[in-house]
Amino acid sequence: MLAVAWYYNILAVLFGFVALVLMLIILAQRGRGVGLAGAFGGAGGHTAFGAKTGDVLTWATVVVTAVFLFAAVVLNYVFVTPTSTLGRTDSTTAITAEQPEQAPVATQPMQPTPAPAAQPVPTPTPQSPPPTSTAPPTPSPTPTPATSLGGGGAP
Question: With contact defined as beta carbons under 8 Å apart, do 133 and 124 qualify?
């Protein structure tokens, strides 16, 4: 990931804020028709923010547009890194006219390499289940009334 300077985000947010303000100022102006001023309840002859609003909005538009264009040019130099080598004369980017030609390397056709021998996969041996007795299960002793916990019978 590229390292971004701490001020890049601040400059980008400020530039977006200037663009938003410019859009709002332009939309608030009265055009030849009613414009956005009619949306605020003003009629064709009246403005939404007073009689002198047209002059103030015109000057504000000029100022904010100048700030927007200046910021766009400055931020172009801040955010874009130079990648072009046009006009550079340092030895790392200069193209030399005399480059020695390399002799072609004689290569032999590649021989296919044999696949490794397949190793047998060990198969698990089946284990026999534990022996089961064929004799019927012996019943468990039933408790006698003296040893039962109920305690309801005679001793």
Answer: no
Contact between 28 and 36 (Cβ < 8 Å): yes
Q: Is 54 among the domain residues? A: yes
Residue with tokens 């696949």: 115
Give me the domain span that covers residue 60: 7-31+46-79
Chain-centre distance for alpha carbon 51: 49
In a domain, 21, yes or no: yes
How many domains does the structure of the chain reveal? Answer: 1
Is the separation of the CB atoms in 71 and 15 below 8 Å? Answer: yes
The angle at the Cα of 72, spanning 61 to 31, to the nearest 5 degrees, equals 25
Residue scoring higher pLDDT (86 or 7): 7
| pTM of the full structure | 0.42
